[in-house]
Structure formats: C-alpha cells, structure tokens
Amino acid sequence: MLYLVGLGLTEKDVTLRGLEVIKKSRCYFDGYTSIYPVERLERLCGKKFERVGREFVESCDLVDEAGKTDVALLVPGDPLSATTHISLVTEAAKKGVEWSVIPGVSVFSAISLTGLQLYKFGMTASIPRTGDLSTVKKALEINRKSGLHTLLLPDVGMGSGEAAKILMDSGLIAPEERIVVAKLPDTVFFGPASGVPDLVPASLVVPGELHFAEREYLEAISWRKGS
Q1: Structural domains of the chain, with CATH
Q2: Three-class SS of residue 12?
Q3: What pLDDT is attached to residue 159?
C-alpha cells in the first residue's frame, strides 16, 4: 500500500489518521521544498524517517516497494497541493498498487487566517531568488484585471520583508501599496509594502478588491503577534 501523508505546516498539524499510517509503515520524508520540524515529529512518533530528495521521489521506486509492503511518503503541507506527487498516484493506479492520500494543512487552506475570501483568490506565484519574476508579474496582471487576490509564496527560507523588497525593487508593487502578510499560528500584518515585517516562514497576499467585511477584519486584527 502506498500512502501519501500530508504533515501540515508543523508537527502539531498531523492528523490522527496520518499518525496511524506513520506508525505502521516504512516512512520516507520528502522535505526538499520546504522547512519542516521533522526531528520533532520523529520524537513524537518514536521512529526515524528516511530523508529523500526529488530524484528519488520522481523515480517512482516507492510505487514498486508499495506493491510489497506499506510505504508512506511524508510531505510537508498537503501531498497533492502544488507538487509533482500526483505522478506517484498515477503510476500506482497503472500498476494496480493500492494507494491512499491523507490530506494535510497547506498554505492554500491556512491563508484563510487573513480573513480574505478564498473564492476571490486568483493565480498563485512563487517569489524566487533567481531574479526571474515573470510568473509573479503575470499573476498580478491577470488577477488585478479581475479584482482578485494574489497569493505570493516566498522562496524557501526567504522572509516576508525580503520578499516585499524584491517586489518593490522590481516595480511590481508600490511602497505605499497595502499588502497582507500571514504567519501561523495567528500573526497577520496589513499595511504598506514598505512597512512589512520580516517573518519566516510567511505568505504574502496582494489584495484585489476588498469586501467591506475583509477590510474590517484585516484592520481589526492587523499585526496580531502569535505565540
């Protein structure tokens, strides 16, 4: 049996079903796309996980092993959100290997912390350190035309302050433009890009047309510092 287990954003986010699978399966930890407190989860579960990289995951060797025993790929966030892991499910289905996906909390659900209505989000983009912001530019252009919110995900290890500076230096947002920064468990900033705090990890949102309830919420809770 092949399991894809979503770990959520911290070790406290793992579901009971996820823990049950972890305890009974051979576990591979896929952490090449994010920072995750895997050592704390190992202590919680009382077992070690084998660290694997992108090459191993995309080789689909897991599928062959899962045809013989219970194998779990542990993925920070949600296993099928913005990843290539869908190919593992496809391969398992083709080979007749049983599979199961256990969803986890991801940035796409946790962004509801901002109070912004999820159905008003448009195209999402990542902010890379490479300097190529073409995807970010495209997302902002498309979403702004429709009045939609734009979720921007800083590169691994990049703080929200650094991300905001990159956006301002590139001319994609103005220093006075108000943006939203969210960091779990309950920290939200709503203010000018020039005043964005440097939080890690955090997500940025360039708001589209704000409903009065969204604006009221943001202004009421802005810069609430979580524990």
Answers
A1: 2-105 (3.40.1010.10), 108-221 (3.30.950.10)
A2: helix
A3: 92
